[in-house]
User: Fold this.
Amino acid sequence: MAAVLSLAACNRDKNEAGIAGVNAGATVTNDTANPTVDNPNVASETETPNPNAPVMKFAEAEFDFGDIKADSKVHHTFIFTNTGKSPLLIQDATASCGCTTPSWTKEPVAPGATGQLEVQFDSRGKHGIISKQVAVRANTQPSITSIAIKGNVLDPVGGEKPL
Assistant:
């Protein structure tokens, strides 16, 4: 017991960093572990909106296929309108999964004109409820617009819905 008391007494004699010292060390470590990254795909808070920028307006942001047969491919064409004041150009469209394949209008879409983005879903190896997103990168503000598909892939045995 005397040893425990002497250890406690030793701690009182030491000059401790205190809470501020501990937090200062944590802040330095945190800044090193999480450096600031300049991402060109994210609009900065100080970026002023361009009133003449193209605007991608989809007629629908999500499409429900309903029931989808197993081992089949289904597709849907999303229609969008450029409601902005300058030509719209899709740079890329990326699906959230390899089973979903987007294809899109490659030519610039003039203000007031429409374009298409077709999304194909391959149900091979899938079953049950699905929900897939497609991120469309264009010369718009913001630069990414998302659309989605969903559905229910039927069980390949007998074509019944999963429980």
User: Anything to note?
Assistant: Residues 11 and 44 are 49 Å apart (CA to CA). Residues 56-153 form a domain with the Immunoglobulin-like fold (CATH 2.60.40.10). Residues 1-16 have pLDDT under 50 and may be disordered.
